[in-house]
C-alpha cells in the first residue's frame, strides 16, 4: 500500500504560484487550518481559489485574500469578508460569484467527468452574462461548465492511514465533492486511526480519492 502520510512541510511542496486550488468549508467550518496556514506561509501567489466563500479576514481562506496571494476567487458569496469586496471593487482581485447550488454542481460535474449541466438559475440576471442559453421544452436554461482544480485541500474529522475519511456535522459540505475534482487531494484530519478502524459504511470519502494525509498535530 502507498504511504500517504506527509508532514506539513511536505504538503507545502505541492504549492506553486498560479495554481488553482479548491478548499472545503463553509465560513471557515470544514476548512483545513494547518494546510491554509502552510499555503500562506509558503509565499505562493496569483492563486485561483474555488470555495463556497472567503470566510472572514482572519479565518478560513480569508488570510490568503488579506495578504494579497489570490488572483481570482470563484465563490457563492463574499459578504462576510470585507477585504474580498474591497479588492474586487479596487480591481486588485477578480471575483466570480456563482449561485451556491450551481457552484457545487459545477464541481460535481468536474469530478464526474461531465461536460456541464443546464440550470434555470440565473436566467435573466447578471449570472447569464457570457454564458450559452439553451431552450428545452420552452424553458430557458444556462449551460454551466464544470470546475476542476490542480489541488484540493480537504478537512475531515477522522482519517485512516489510507485516506478513508469521515466528516463531522457542517464540515460535510464542499469537502466530499472537491475531493473528486482535483488532480491532487490532501486531507487534514482531526483524528487519525488505523486501517480497518472505520466501518466501511461510515466512510464518506474513500481513500482511493486521497493522495496525501497530513497527520494531526498530536500524532
Fold blueprint:
Blueprint: E1 5-6, H1 8-12, E2 20-23, H2 33-42, E3 47-50, H3 62-66, E4 70-75, H4 82-89, E5 94-97, H5 100-112, E6 117-119, E7 133-136, E8 139-144, E9 149-160, E10 165-166, H6 175-178, E11 182-193, E12 212-214
Parallel strand pairs: 1-12, 2-3, 2-9, 3-4, 4-5, 9-11, 11-12
Antiparallel strand pairs: 6-8, 7-8, 9-10
Protein name: Acetate CoA-transferase subunit alpha
Family: Belongs to the 3-oxoacid CoA-transferase subunit A family.
GO molecular function: CoA-transferase activity
Question: Could you characterize what this model shows?
Answer:
By secondary structure, the protein is of the alpha/beta class. 21% of the residues lie in helices and 28% in strands. It has helices spanning 8-12, 33-42, 62-66, 82-89, 100-112, 175-178, and strands at 5-6, 20-23, 47-50, 70-75, 94-97, 117-119, 133-136, 139-144, 149-160, 165-166, 182-193, 212-214. The strands form two sheets. Strands 1, 2, 3, 4, 5, 9, 10, 11 and 12 form a nine-stranded mixed β-sheet that branches. A hairpin with a 4-residue loop joins strand 9 and strand 10. The longest helix has 13 residues, at 100-112. It is globular and about 55 Å long. 38% of the residues are buried. One of its GO terms (molecular function) is CoA-transferase activity. Belongs to the 3-oxoacid CoA-transferase subunit A family. Keywords: Transferase.
Amino acid at each position: 500500500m502507498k504511504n500517504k502520510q506527509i508532514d506539513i512541510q511536505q504538503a507545502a511542496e505541492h504549492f506553486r504560484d498560479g495554481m488553482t486550488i479548491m478548499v472545503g468549508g463553509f465560513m471557515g467550518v470544514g476548512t483545513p487550518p494547518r494546510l491554509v496556514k502552510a499555503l500562506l506561509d509558503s509565499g505562493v501567489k496569483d492563486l485561483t481559489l474555488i470555495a463556497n466563500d472567503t470566510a472572514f479576514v482572519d479565518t478560513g481562506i480569508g488570510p490568503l485574500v488579506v495578504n494579497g496571494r489570490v488572483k481570482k476567487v470563484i465563490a457563492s458569496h463574499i459578504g462576510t469578508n470585507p477585504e474580498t469586496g474591497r479588492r474586487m471593487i479596487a480591481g486588485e482581485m477578480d471575483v466570480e460569484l456563482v449561485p451556491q447550488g450551481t457552484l457545487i454542481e459545477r464541481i460535481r460535474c468536474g469530478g464526474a467527468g461531465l461536460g456541464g449541466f443546464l440550470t434555470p438559475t440565473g436566467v435573466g440576471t447578471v449570472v447569464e452574462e457570457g454564458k450559452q442559453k439553451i431552450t428545452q421544452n420552452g424553458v430557458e436554461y444556462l449551460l454551466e461548465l464544470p470546475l476542476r482544480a490542480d489541488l484540493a485541500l480537504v478537512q475531515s474529522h477522522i482519517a485512516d492511514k489510507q485516506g478513508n475519511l469521515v466528516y463531522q456535522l457542517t464540515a460535510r459540505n464542499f469537502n466530499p465533492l472537491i475531493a473528486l475534482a482535483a488532480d491532487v487531494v490532501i486531507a487534514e484530519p482531526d483524528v487519525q486511526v488505523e486501517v480497518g478502524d472505520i466501518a466501511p459504511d461510515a466512510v464518506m470519502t474513500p481513500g482511493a480519492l486521497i493522495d496525501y494525509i497530513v497527520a494531526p498535530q498530536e500524532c
